[in-house]
Design goal:
It is built from 2 helices and 24 strands. The protein is mainly β. The strands form 5 sheets. It has an 8-stranded mixed β-sheet, covered by helices on one side. It has a 6-stranded parallel β-sheet with strand order 7-10-13-16-19-22, with no helix packed on it. A 5-stranded mixed β-sheet has the order 3-4-2-1-5, sandwiched between helices. β1, α1 and β2 form a beta-alpha-beta unit.
Length: 209
């Protein structure tokens, strides 16, 4: 599979290595920091607006940008069918055969996604995180390294769960909420809220632009 990557920062470098480890190849890396298109080692580097010139039937796209909100804006901007996005899963990840993973989602090394879990589109399921049985993860969410979402946890769109945090069973994280690193969530978290601590407390409301 040929893959076009949108974004060329630190998160992108991780995904670039994952694509190679999965046996696919990178045809282009697009980022608006490139004022002029260049080709280096067989890979095209150009602005995102160059994408239509590169699309082919056998080519997939992945948005390799850590910001949930920016990933959503780019999906709206390029306006292609969902099937053109690649789902990238590292070979060391353990994925239940009954789990569902959406288009454009990236599953990092040593992740576990258990039975009947459903992960939305354009999510980041980061290194060694655990998505337990019957979880539902909303589109454009980011589950950070070593986070644990226990059974029957649900999230809205654009949620960011911080590194090494734990969500106890049956709790809901509202859309665009942020859970601080190392936190323990024992109650539902409203949308557009930032919660931190063990147990968590809400410390601010979030404005999404």
């Amino acid at each position: 599979m040929q893959v076009i990557i949108i974004g060329d920062g630190g998160h992108s470098r991780v995904i670039q290595e994952m694509i190679i480890s999965c046996g696919s190849s990178i045809s282009a890396i697009l980022d608006d920091k490139y004022e002029h298109g260049i080709r280096r080692n067989g890979i095209i580097y150009a602005q995102i607006s160059f994408l239509p010139k590169l699309l082919k039937k056998d080519t997939k796209i992945v948005i390799a940008i850590g910001s949930n909100a920016i990933r959503k804006r780019i999906v709206r901007r390029i306006n292609i069918i969902p099937e053109m996005y690649a789902t990238i899963i590292h070979p060391t990840a353990v994925i239940s055969t009954s789990a569902q993973i959406g288009y454009g989602t990236v599953v990092m090394p040593h992740v576990v996604i258990n039975a009947q879990a459903a992960v939305g589109t354009h999510c980041i399921i980061n290194t060694a995180s655990i998505i337990e049985h019957d979880n539902t993860i909303g589109d454009f969410s980011h589950i950070s390294p070593n986070a644990t979402l226990t059974g029957n946890v649900t999230t809205g769109e654009g949620v960011h769960v911080g590194a090494s945090s734990t969500i106890i069973p049956g709790k809901h994280l509202g859309s665009w909420s942020i859970i601080g690193a190392g936190s323990t969530v024992i109650e539902h978290i409203p949308a557009y809220s930032k919660a931190v601590g063990c147990p968590t407390r809400i410390i601010e409301r979030i404005l999404i632009k």
